[in-house]
Amino acid sequence: MQKGTFRGFEVALQPPGIAVITLNQPERLNGTTQEMKRDLVELLLQAQMDDAVRVVVITGSGRAFCAGDDITGRPRDSDAEALVPSIGRGHTSPISTYDALRAISQPLNQALRNLDKLSIAAVNGIAIQTGLSLALACDFRIASTEARLGSGTLRFGFMPDEGGQYLLVQHMGVAKTMDFLMRNKIVSADEALDLGLVHEVVAPDQLMDRTMQLASELANGPQIAMRLLKRSVYNAAELTFAQSLDEIAAKTAVSDHHPDAREGLAAFQEKRAAHFNRDLPSGQ
Predict the structure, then answer these.
(1) pTM
(2) Which fold has domain 4-219?
(3) Considering the domain 223-269, what is its CATH architecture?
(4) First to last CA, the chain
(5) Sheet bearing 126-128, strands edge to edge
(6) Omega before residue 16 within 30° of 0, cis
(7) Digit-coded pLDDT (tens) for 215-233
C-alpha cells in the first residue's frame, strides 16, 4: 500500500500492520471532493490486497473528522499526488447526478464495507454528511468528547445519498433513524454512544492512543478467521438463519484448517499466549 501525502489525506503504516489515514485539510474541515473519494477507494483496494496491512484507521486533523463534501469551490493543492486521474464531476443533470453518486461517491463506503481487514474511525471532531457515513461504514468507532455527529443534509434540502440512511438503520433501527434524520439532529459524542453510533468516548488527548491500542489488539488477532468473520457478521444482517448457518460453515471449513487454528489450540493446551499470523508480514 502506498504511503505519503495525497489529495486531501496522508497515509502512514505502523507495526503490526496498522494503516493510518489522516484527512489533512483542517482549514476546510476535511471536506471531501470527488478526486479525494476516488483516491481513497484506490487506497482501500491497495490495503485489501496488501498482506502487510491488517487494520485501517481513519481520522481527521483539526476540529473536524470530516464535515461533509467541500462545497466551497475553492481550488485544492495541485501539487498533491493523485492515485487515480481526475474525471468529470457530473451533477449537471438528473442522470449525471445519479451516475456520479453510483460511480464516485457511494463506492467509498462500499470499499470500506468490502474491505476484509477491520477498520476503525477515530472521530476527533465534527462528522457530518459524508463524514458521518464514512465513520459508520467503519467496523469500530471511537469518538473524542469534542465530536459531533449528524447527517445535516436536510439543511440544504439534500439527501443522505452515500448510504447514510442504510447505515443509520443498521446501527440504531428505523424509528431512531427517522427521528435522527427528519429532525436534522447533530448529537454529542455521549449522545452518539447512547444511540449506538459509536463504541467508545474518550478525552481528546486520549483518542489516538486508545484507537491505536484497539488497532494493535485487532491486528494481533488471528487475521484469517477475523476477516472471514467480519464478512459473515455483515452477511448475517441480510440473510435468513438457515442461510447464515450455511454461510459460516463454508468459512469455518477454511479457518479450521489454517495454521492459526492449530496454534490457538496448542496455546490453549500449553497454557500460553497464542502467536498468530506467522505467515503474514508485520507491517512497517
Answers:
(1) 0.94
(2) 2-enoyl-CoA Hydratase; Chain A, domain 1 (3.90.226)
(3) Orthogonal Bundle (1.10)
(4) 11
(5) 64-66, 126-128, 148-150, 186-188
(6) yes
(7) 999 999 999 999 999 999 9
